[in-house]
Amino acid sequence: MSIGRMTHIRKSSVFLSYLLVNLCVLFALFVHAMLNVREAKPALEGKSALVRSLGLTDLCLFSEASYTRHLSLADFSTPFQDCPLSLEHFPSGSVVEPPEHLREMAPGDADR
Hints:
Number of helices: 5
Number of strands: 0
Helix content: 40-55%
Order of helices and strands: HHHHH
Distance between the termini: 90 Å
Largest sheet: none
Radius of gyration: 27 Å
């Protein structure tokens, strides 16, 4: 009995094949987007008009904590629900600055 010769595929060949497939998919997505611009334009204009008519201004930048989702609607005590000295639970809370009116507020004016 003879055992067939095993062929080995080089890692560089696998990587280049992977890279080529990803570039082809990226190119196909780009072409698809360019071909569908005319079809999507009326829908985007309608959504844009709806946003203007409703006066929507808030953009959801973070999805993890209620007080970082919509900064204009945040309750002042929400970040400190567990304890006033508790650590920040969510990373986005350390990225977002407090609103201007809270930074100017004196320490004794927190009742407002």
